[in-house]
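Why run this: before we spend reagent on co-expression, it is cheaper to look at a predicted model of the complex and decide which construct boundaries make sense. The entries below are exactly what would go into the expression plan.
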Amino acid sequence: MDHSVRMTSTLDPRDAWTAEGCTIAKALDAIPTRSAFLILREAFYGTTRFDDFAERVGISEPVTAARLRELVEKGLLEREDYREPGQRTRRRYRLTPKGADLFPALVALMQWGNRWLDDRGGPVALRHRDCGEEVSVELRCAAGHAVCPEVVDLAPRDARHATHDAAAMRMASRRRLAAE
Amino acid sequence: MDHSVRMTSTLDPRDAWTAEGCTIAKALDAIPTRSAFLILREAFYGTTRFDDFAERVGISEPVTAARLRELVEKGLLEREDYREPGQRTRRRYRLTPKGADLFPALVALMQWGNRWLDDRGGPVALRHRDCGEEVSVELRCAAGHAVCPEVVDLAPRDARHATHDAAAMRMASRRRLAAE
DNA sequence: CCGCTGGCTTAGGGATTGCATAGCCAGGAC
DNA sequence: GTCCTGGCTATGCAATCCCTAAGCCAGCGG
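The model came back. Tokens follow.
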């Protein structure tokens, strides 16, 4: 069975364009390493402190420091100093909205790993607090339909505009021919 | 604002457990490199042939060969020989169901990249063939509710059993005290 | 002032990823 | 038999990722 998405409009055939500017590639540049991604996992799990990140991800302190700095520089985490009463100043790292928006990607990988890489469905589950049911990611269109991958097309951004423009140009061309 | 998920049951406090066996980490082990992930992107875009993978991802042939071999070994792609009439035997790579099931993860990264890394919302869009609307991933629970990350909890797999077992043990303990 | 802690940095080294280049090889066409 | 093509492999090198170990430093408590 063919599991690929269908190319449409100027994207068909696939030879006709390059993936320059691909946002999947850009996303992978933003979180280029396994250690960076797992630090984000820990941030989603509520970890905030340097030593805890190192310990819970299982990476060394130099790498922890480097990854935290990069994630702050890229705007996925923010660093702030805080102080509990009677204690000295400490530093914590927290997700920004930009970083938090990676949650579906994290969930999608967990879901895949649960299904294919763990006979028991994974050691942990994400649950909807209100009803207790397990949470997963689903493909949906803007009209609210659940969409299976078999009916997903890849189109240029603004393909409607492009398609509309192309139709308008064809009409103009016909008018020119009729006037000749 | 706190963007982390809430730990529940034996997962709270976060100190109480390690992420050994984490399926996110296992998933990252399965697709450990940027080049592997982008080869999968191309497979979703319908690319099947060796030279095309190398060219469209923009990686060298030695790396293309190594990544394709690894993805086949891990069961995400399958390799088969085929022959067009009048031509010599060729080889193509195609997604397996296991590989195809990574589509939501790919879509989630594209969606994030479209929103945060491209002022114009990304060069391409995924659309629902039946209605033309853009496709994205959404968090949903098994009861069908759309779920925002603020109401997602992390629980041990089979937490209901664990919680139920704990309640049953408390009842038995009360009965023993009453009999004394 | 000393000691401790939290949060790093530095240095050296090993492993991995990826590049460019050249080459190999099977199988087909001529 | 020769040539070409598609799909690799081999080699040497550069860059990156990560490790361990040691060290630094500010700020606090005693």
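Residues 49-51, 61-62, 64-65, 88-91 of chain B lie near DNA strand D (CB under 10 Å from a C1'). The radius of gyration of chain B is 23 Å. Bring this page to Monday's planning discussion.
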